[in-house]
Design goal:
The chain contains two helices and four strands.
């Protein structure tokens, strides 16, 4: 596996719209195994950003069902 793309609601986020410690650990494990990961969601960047705090997503991210592609490092 080279790349995992996560949806947010009901996939990466729990019902409280948070990334759980288990999910954070899983993302860290993916990183240690050189598996790239990012998000693709129907949410706006503004709505998604607070939910993703504390997790490093270095690859481009897709928002608004593909209307916006955002590169966090630029």
């Amino acid at each position: 596996m080279d790349l995992v793309v996560f949806d947010l609601d009901g996939t990466l986020l729990n019902r409280k719209q948070q990334i759980t410690p288990f999910t954070r650990d899983t993302l860290a494990l993916l990183k240690t195994h050189d598996v790239a990961f990012t998000v693709a969601t129907g949410r706006t960047l503004h709505a998604a950003k607070p939910c993703l705090e504390g997790v490093e997503f270095s690859l481009p991210q897709v928002y608004k069902n593909g209307v916006l592609v955002w590169q966090p490092e630029q």
